[in-house]
Amino acid sequence: MDEKLIQRLESAVSRLEALSVGGFSGGVSLGDGEAAAALDPSIIAFDDLRSQFVGRVRSAAEKIGGQVLDVTKIVEEAFEAQRELLIKIKETQKPSMSGLAEFLKPLNDVIVKATKMTEGRRSDFFNHLKAAVDSLTALAWIAYTGKDCGMSMPIAHVEESWQMAEFYNNKVLVEFRNKDPNHVEWAKALKELYLPGLRDYVKSHYPLGPVWSATGKVAVSAPPKAPAPSRPMPPPPPPASLFSSESPQASSSRPKKGMAAVFDEINSGKPVTGGLRKVTDDMKTKNRADRTGVISAGEKEGRVSSPSFSKAGPPKLELQMGRKWVVENQIGRKNLVIDDCDAKQSVYIFGCKDSVLQIQGKVNNITIDKCTKMGVVFMDVVAACEVVNCNGIEVQCQGSAPTISVDNTTGCQLYLSKDSLETSITTAKSSEINVLVPGAGPDSDWGEHALPQQFAHIYKNGQFVTTPVSHSGG
Q1: What does DSSP say about strands 447-450 and 346-350: parallel, antiparallel, or unpaired?
Q2: How many angstroms separate the CA atoms of 91 and 112, rounded?
Q3: pLDDT tens-digit map of 164-218
Q4: φ and ψ at 352, to 5 degrees?
Q5: Would you put residue 114 in left (φ > 0), alpha (ψ -120 to 50) or beta?
Q6: Mind spelling out the 3-state secondary structure of 103-128?
Q7: Among the residues of 206-296, which ranges form H helices?
Q8: pTM, rounded to two decimals
Q9: Are 342 and 363 in contact, with CB atoms under 8 Å apart?
């Protein structure tokens, strides 16, 4: 008999035994909505999902132990919390937005607890933690309430959420493919939990979102909190909710900044020179009486110690003049997203550090300039993706890119998809450039190729012949 069928039968028997003990003892009737909902086909299918896919991740984590096992237990806890919510949805009327946030609070609390594991000092298993924590965003499909709720459809949301986690999951596969097969098994099991596991479950049972009860009980919103007494210092802000309606990307309704604000000021009809001050003769350098042409040591030191402006400007993520997305000075932001783009727009990333940007759509070209420890994931580019003056950059192409150029950069990891294997890669004045390509099969490991950074030039037959220098592994 099929092993999956045996597991489903054993799970159903266990549920019936639990109901027979808890449902009939003491004269309690089995007619409770929660007990009936537990036998719903969608709940039984969710239990199968947990036993099959979550169980595989747990088995692999137990072989590794440590923080990997700890974060895997939280993943189990999150799926358990979602199961309880799915049961309650079947006996609860659709709440308001404030009521929905309170209803989903148990799941959000688990995800916030998982997020705290990635904070503080970076551990040796940081990529495992980030892959697991970012993957939990997929469980937010349960918050979908309709096309106007600001979320993607449930199936698309699961797929998009996994794309964010896959960036770190691939790093686990690359790091441990020749070191420890248990880590590789864990990373593959984590991916299969969502693709195809959770995606196929949502597709089969909730393609249009949760189905709330029309006659069930009403979800009660959290009562308003009484004003707190005055304190010397306000309490720290709570952690950001997974189900917050605010989008991570810049909104077009916000005040315009940068060059967009300058052009608006010019087009307003006001005098352009209205706010300028007139320079009088005594203010000109050539007429100053104290102009000696000698700079003292104290004056020179004063200039160095008091710069006129900070090196890093304010963070930006905005569309300028409808043609150019500007992402500047983003520090420690792992959830930057640009999803409202088209093939006529370009993306310019400057001065970012320890951040991750997703570009969900085709754009004309992408430029990454003066960034450190920056990750960029994009779908398709029409012209080229350029990396300039960077350090420790990771770029993942999930679609196609005709050209990728790397200039004056130290440490660059390029992840190519099967559609981008014919990409032309150009490097100049760069070192530590590695290109990772997918294996032949769906379960094959990624292949890593180091691009040469040192060349030998030999004069032969009236011209120089240049060949890359190869180094043996010994």
Answers
A1: unpaired
A2: 27
A3: 888 889 989 988 988 899 999 999 999 999 998 999 999 999 998 888 888 777 7
A4: -95, 155
A5: alpha
A6: HCHHHHHHHHHHHHCCCCCCCCCHHH
A7: 258-267
A8: 0.51
A9: yes
